[in-house]
Design brief:
- By secondary structure, the chain is mainly alpha-helical.
Length: 447
């Protein structure tokens, strides 16, 4: 049963991946027009429809349709990254944004565990119930203070100001933090009005849209994010996650008594979840650059050692030393799980959190949706091409290529990614607009 459910999951997962960009692209304009909270609530509706369709599905066509709807719903959840980045203090923003990956890892782990105990219809009933709970909880979430004052046609009235301050007070109980955040929001809003960025009419918005994306504070972070996601995909982290059972089977399938590729897959899920939690706390202290650099180095070393093991395993096998190879397979498993461990510490998690930090407020909604869309298209292309690549390349060559791309990603982070820990949105925008090459000091004083 476990294997059947996993096969069904991975055969339909590509539908979610390829339709998710549609939801992401829609989410941007919607969240700017109607608000972060409304779009968060709306995203639950297609997700609930998807779960109900799966519960009562009687044909494969219904299942595919449900997964397409689920992909669009998943794309709409891009609003969550934008919302969290706007309601949190710069000192804890990196930590809270990392929770996105924590809950993704938790969801995958729960799915694996439920697959052992329940059939797929029962699992969908549980997921539908959870979706309903999320929908109800979102009613108690305050609207983003940034959206309340910065996306109201450039006109601030007393009612909007009162609502913004009320929501801001709910989010920041301490008076000093409340006052600091209020000043920061007002400064950002005034800059938008001064620069003519506040939306007025559809015609004016369309006319000014190209100008916004061609400004340095917009296109520079977009290019950095696109490059970072490309390197993330080419480093192979998601390939190993998506094809874990196949990869473990190519590595030999058994790693000791009563421990096969399925056990290794469950262990992979547990490791991802634990490391993502550790990343949450580390991101508050060490920032983005340090975590990504350490992650990239760890990934490169782990994949290089995995490739070397497979290289010598082939040599030993050709010389008839199969028993020695079998007794050392746990070492190969250790290298691959170390790769997953180090990738979850930085490169799998951090790029997603940077979407809500690097992009300026004027394009954060639409730009964030665009970045997520491109990221998932890259993921779809890399993941779906792996079976064909694995037929033309040995597993050791694939491991070596992953190691090289991990090292390339590390170099890119070192030279181009600015630190965002403790930086306000204004600081980050000023860094890109100034064209400075020096990395911003994460410990600089806040405005």
């Amino acid at each position: 049963m476990f294997y059947i459910i996993l096969c069904l999951f991975f055969s339909t997962a590509s539908l979610v991946t390829i339709t998710l960009p549609i939801g992401s692209l829609i989410a941007g304009p919607l969240m700017d027009k109607f608000g972060r909270k409304i779009v968060s609530l709306v995203s639950c509706i297609p997700a609930a429809i998807s779960w109900v369709s799966l519960i009562f599905a009687k044909s494969l066509t219904t299942i595919y349709a449900a997964r397409i709807i689920a992909g669009i719903a998943a794309g709409l959840t891009t609003v969550g990254l934008v919302y969290i980045s706007e309601i949190t203090h710069p000192q804890i923003r990196p930590m809270l944004l990392c929770l996105n990956s924590v809950f993704v890892s938790l969801g995958i782990l729960i799915t694996c565990c439920l697959a052992v105990l329940l059939d797929w219809r029962q699992m969908n009933i549980i997921f539908f119930a959870l979706e309903c709970c999320i929908f109800l909880l979102l009613f108690f979430v305050p609207e983003s203070p940034y959206w309340l004052v910065c996306f109201q046609n450039g006109m601030l009235n007393e009612k909007q100001m009162h609502k913004m301050k009320h929501n801001l007070k709910r989010l920041n109980r301490r008076q000093t933090i409340y006052e600091e955040e209020c000043l920061r929001i007002m400064e950002t809003c005034k800059n938008r009005v001064t620069n003519g960025e506040a939306p007025k009419t559809i015609a004016v918005s369309i006319k000014n849209y190209f100008h916004k994306f061609t400004s340095p504070e917009a296109y520079k972070p977009l290019l950095i994010l696109f490059a970072l996601f490309l390197l993330q995909q080419l480093s192979g982290a998601y390939v190993v996650i998506f094809y874990a059972i196949s990869v473990f089977r190519e590595m030999g399938g058994t790693f000791g008594k009563s421990f096969n590729e399925h056990g290794a897959f469950v262990m992979l899920g547990i490791i991802r979840f634990i490391i993502s939690i550790i990343t949450v706390f580390c991101s508050r202290k060490y920032g983005r650059r340090v975590l990504c650099i350490l992650s990239g180095i760890g990934m490169a070393i782990s994949m290089f050692l995995s490739g070397m093991y497979m290289h010598f395993a082939v040599w030993y096998d050709e010389n008839g030393n199969t028993e020695e190879i079998a007794s050392q397979k746990w070492l190969l498993l250790f290298f691959v799980l170390s790769y997953i461990c180090t990738s979850s510490f930085g490169f799998v998690v951090i790029p997603w959190t940077l979407i809500g930090e690097l992009l300026p407020l004027s394009i954060r909604g639409i730009g964030g949706g665009l970045v997520v869309s491109v990221a998932y298209i890259m993921m779809f292309g890399v993941v779906k091409s792996y079976p064909y690549i694995s037929k033309s390349m040995s597993i050791e060559s694939i491991f070596f290529s992953f190691s090289f791309m991990s090292l390339t990603g590390t170099a890119f982070v070192y030279f181009f990614l600015p630190e965002t820990l403790g930086k306000s949105f204004s600081d980050i925008e000023k860094f890109f607009s100034a064209g400075a090459r020096k990395t911003p000091d994460a410990n600089s004083e806040q405005p």
